[in-house]
Every structure is written in C-alpha cells, then in structure tokens.
Amino acid sequence: MTLAHINSWIFDLDNTLYKGDDIFFSQIIGNITKYISRYLALHPTEARILQKQYLEEYGTSLSGLMAVHGMDPADFLDYVHDVDLEMLKPDPRLYAGLEALPGKKYMFTNGSRGHARNIGEHLGIYKLFDGIFAIEDVDYIPKPKRSAYEKFLTEYDIDPTCALMAEDTPHNLEVPKDMGMATLLIAPDGGELPHYVDMQTFDLPAWLQVFT
Ligand SMILES: [Mg+2]
After folding, report:
1. How far is the CA of 15 from the centre of ligand 1 (A)?
2. Res. 21 pLDDT band, cuts 50 70 90
3. d(CA 14, ligand 1 centre) in Å
4. Ligand 1 mean position, distance from CA 171 (Å)
5. How many beta carbons lie within 10 A of that of residue 203, not counting itself?
6. Which residues of the chain form beta strands (DSSP E)?
C-alpha cells in the first residue's frame, strides 16, 4: 500500500515503540497486583484474578477499578509505573526513523502521561513527538473504545484518512481501520492477519528505515 498520503503517524507505546521483555512488563503487572491487593484487601492470588478480569472487561485494570470501585487513578498510576528502566536501551535506528517521517508524530498510549514521559525520555525519543495522548486524556476510557480515538483525533485535528496507526495489540487497530486510517501491526510473522491490518512488522526501526 502507498503511504504518500500519510501526514500523521500515530504510535502506541508499550511493545510498539520499544519491546519490553517479560522481565520488564512483569514489574508493572506485579505492581498492579500489589496495588489491588492493598487497595481491596485481597490475597495477591485473588487480586491477580480481578486484575485480569478488569483488563479483559474494561481495556485496562485501572478502568475496571475506577468503574467498579470508584478508585482515584492518580495514586495508582504513580505506583504501578514506578519501574526500573535499566534494561531498556535506546535504539539510534528508531530515533532516526521517527525523525525522518514526513508529517507529525504522536504517541497514543493506554498508559499514563508519566509512563509515556519516563519511557520516551529514557529512549531519547520523547522530544520527537508533536503530541502525547495518555489514559488521563481519554478520561480513563482506553483504546479500543471508539471514544478514545475520537478524542485523540479531535484534540490534534487529525484527518484519519491521512493517518497511520501502529500497534502491537491487533484489536486496537480495528476502530482506526474503520475510521479510514492505515494500520501497521507490530508482531512476529506467522498466522493470518485480521482484515483490519494493512501491514505488519516485528522490527519497527527497520520498517522506518525507508524514510531515512
Ligand atoms: Mg502496546
């Protein structure tokens, strides 16, 4: 497919702009379990079950905790995203590829603003983005809910038919495709792609190289 018409490049953060290996993400997942356990006075095993259940039903565990228990999100977000970034290494190919893209660049994450800034600055790419849209900006109603994409597009006055969205979670590309965006799935080869995925790569920096 041709990308000549694309002037807005939208990137998910986790496992899209960088690959967090299991050890890295287990820090966040473990922090969420600890927080739920403390907040609801549950055994960690029960907390983990609830965490997964809310993730499936509400898109993020946080959204479930807010909807069902009326939890205040700020303290939760600070707590769960407090992780050791030492194992994540900046990739000069990613910086060069993002910098060379013709048009505006956006980060659109279901994580918090603080998380986007921590990781983005650690990877040295934060300043390349024209806009950062995080869970606070969608009123805690995350992708793949249509309202999240609508808020994002309105905020930055983006024409979806001139936008590309890159994501590692296939389901998060369904609404963007329906809205007219080009879609790029970050995933290993193999298996049939969903109809709403236009392109696929497991190496985003390599994919971006064509623009440099
Ligand atoms: Mg992701």
Report:
1. 5
2. confident
3. 4
4. 11
5. 13
6. 8-11, 104-108, 131-133, 163-167, 182-186, 199-201
Ligand 1 centroid from CA 112, angstroms: 13
Please tell me if the domain spanning 8-18+89-211 has the same topology as the one spanning 22-80. Answer: no
Secondary structure of residue 203 in the 3-state scheme? coil
**Per-residue pLDDT reduced to its tens digit, 91-133:** 999 999 999 999 999 999 999 999 999 999 999 999 999 999 9
Domain 8-18+89-211 fold is: Rossmann fold (3.40.50)
Q: How many angstroms is it from 168 CA to the middle of ligand 1?
A: 5
> How far is residue 165's CA from residue 12's CA, in Å, rounded to a whole number?
8
Looking at the DSSP bridge assignments, the partners of residue 133 are 108
Instruction: Report cis status (omega within 30 of 0) of the bond before 142.
Output: no
Domain locations along the chain: 8-18+89-211, 22-80
Categorise residue 62: left if φ over 0, alpha if ψ from -120 to 50, beta otherwise.
alpha
Q: 3-state class of 14 per DSSP?
A: strand
pLDDT at 187 over 80: yes
pTM, 2 dp: 0.92
What are the angstrom distances between the C-alpha of 71 and each of 3, 51, 64, 74? 42, 14, 9, 9
- Cα of 6 vs centre of ligand 1, distance in Å, is 21
Domain range 22-80, its CATH number among 3.90.1010.10, 1.10.10.10, 2.60.120.10, 1.10.150.450: 1.10.150.450
Q: How far is the CA of 21 from the centre of ligand 1 (A)?
A: 12
